[in-house]
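Take a careful look at the protein record below. Let me know whether the structure tokens fit the sequence:
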Amino acid sequence: MSKVIPEDAQRPPGNIPQVALSWLVRDAPEYLERKTRAQFVPPTVSIKDVHAAVPRHLFQKSTAKGLYYIGRHVVLSVLFYVFATRIDQLSWKAAAALGWSSSGRALVSWAFWALYWFWQSVSFAGMWVLGHECGHDAVSPYAWVNIICGMGLHTLVLTPYFAWRLTHRAHHKGTNHLARDETYHPMSRSDFKKLPDAAHATKMDYKEILEETPLYTLFKMVIRQFLGFQLYLIHNRKGNPKYPPWTSHYNPDSKLFKPQDRNAIIVSDIAIGLMLLFLATWSYKTSFHNVWSLYFVPWLWAHNWLVMFTYLQHSDPTVPYYREKSWTFARGALATVDRPVFGWIGWFFWHGISSTHVAHHFFVSIPFYNLPQVTEAIKPVLGEYYCYDSTPTMYALWRSFTQCTFIEDEGDVVFFKNQHGEAVREYVEPEAEEKKAREGDDEAWKLAGF
């Protein structure tokens, strides 16, 4: 049986709760409440009941409304760019108005660049989100509109549209299914070759094999946040290990895809190649430093944001993973956490991708602007299995990164264990409702919008 962490464990060390900013580094009440329910019985929620709870008008897609959101987003990104091209001029004027010397002007210039990098990176991440919506055919009822908009938005941020669209749909069809899910595949005990099995592992074993210094953990976290998504696209880093080494989203013959997908992957590759050619030409005509400042710095920061919110959607100490015997579509959809990531920024620029992700997993093609209403409609049906967590985003990210260390190699339902071999919840064998809950997944996919 898994060792369950006491309710008061894993809180920030020292006197942090006593300082003014303690709310930034503490678990939210919703998370603590889930921990109190340490004995986890898998849900038997009916996909039909969930579907029936949603008013029919929320399924309707409006091309005009979808294009409005895309147009608004692109305009804001262009305005940020125009601001950046005038930073030198603005810095001179600001420094002169303040009576500052050249060193003061340099300080103002750096402040303006930091402002641009932040907001443009937020905007780039939002472009990726809107491309993701197009990939689900959620922007317009017309396929060609979704394809053109999705291809344009994803190519602008160097994401191969068709390739990622296909594997992301596979993720939705097998969410938190250990054999079928495509992304953020957890490490298992056997991946740590020197770690004994749970019955024989001692505290010293965990300490010697799993414990890391905070500095090394931070280094790994930075690499994953800024480069992890591109490494996943290039060679399946943190993807499902069932694929051969160096499986790539850019390879038309990759095991990620079916033979009939080959031409679409080639189209994605050509689009990415054209974008890279544009960036190279831009660098040649101006300078690499110019393109680095205007495009690549916010592009890298945008990766940090999108890895942050996609990782936190499913990677949490209180969220289960399933093996074949126990997985259902509804259970996979419920292995999702809604989070108010960065407040109004998450709603306005990232279109609520984190705040309404549970509803999105149940209904992938419902437009994002209707998902808040869908969420409220299905909450009564989901009951205690609806996961919401208002833990401050950066602390939640650190918590998941440091506590979601590995899962056991056996068990129909497993939870993450931390570096001490402890889990916050444990699986309890369900009763007769199990068979009923597993029926009808083919129909569930249809109801979800696949």
About this structure: The longest strand covers residues 39-40. DSSP finds 18 helices and six strands in the chain. Confidence is low (pLDDT under 50) at residues 6-17. The radius of gyration is 23 Å.
